[in-house]
Give the backbone structure.
Amino acid sequence: MSARIRVLVPGKINPRVVDRLAERFEVIRIDSADPALVTAEIQDAKAVAVSGRVPAALMDALPGLEIIANFGVGYDGVDVGHAAERGITVSNTPDVLTEEVADTAVGLLLNTLRQLPQAEQWLRQGRWAKDGAFPLSPLSLRGRTVGLYGLGRIGLAIARRLEAFGVSIAYHTRSPREGLSYAYHPTLVGLAAAVDTLVVIVPGTEATKRAVNAEVLSALGSNGVLVNVGRGSTVDEAALIAALQAGVIAGAGLDVFENEPQVPDALMALPNVSLLPHVASASVVTRNAMADLVAGNIEAWFETGRALTPVPETPFTRRSA
């Protein structure tokens, strides 16, 4: 493998990615995915390692670009359609974060229902000793019916965990999955009407943008709880705030938001929500595994001509040595 192969890293990324790549490649860093930052000296980069955006204009500024290795399962920040037109392989990091995100989703659901973060603060603030027992949580996981919006790797992992809690499980995807006993609903509104707990774990696409809207929340009902560990763009945040304020639904647990890292004050002021700063996969163990897979995809591309985990839209092999 030639040491002259250049890998461009636009913006921030896990340091382990850079450390791994620097062992075999010349790593070039720029502040952002702005094509204006691509100078003549670095436009021969053949790979991009990214945690964030890769617009078409950046790809076009790199005429020899062969592979974009995305840090994360979701790759909606990458213009994958343009990459496919250019014959550029895009890879992501599936599987290695599945279990961590599923663990977080269940934990967030329990936090929302049982108000465990609030109970901990009650203790830490000395209120247990001063004011007595923390108030009974109005909600519980007991007897609930959970609907999963999305049933890919992570959705299935969440469902299997929830089976152990003895809850009923249903789901909505574009088409039913074979070999599953979970109830399938052909529409998201239909799913919401049939359950009292909705867990969102779909990618951020035009098809899913604000799909969880006022109609869906109304169908979920006054005992309903929404949990989102997918993408913030999937939920109409203004409609969600209004539903929580008016008691249209009972509560929400959110790890993702429409305009991260900005979270609306109105959302933070609500007592019936549990909020996390997009940490579903944020353990050292899992992020190291993700970083290794980013680097591994680029290494494999130049060593074997195939990425380890290419996305479905770009199932390419390397045409030149």
Remarks:
- The CA atoms of residues 21 and 295 lie 6 Å apart.
- The chain has a mean pLDDT of 97.
- The domain at 6-94+284-304 is CATH 3.40.50.720 (Rossmann fold).
- The first strand starts at residue 6 and ends at 10.
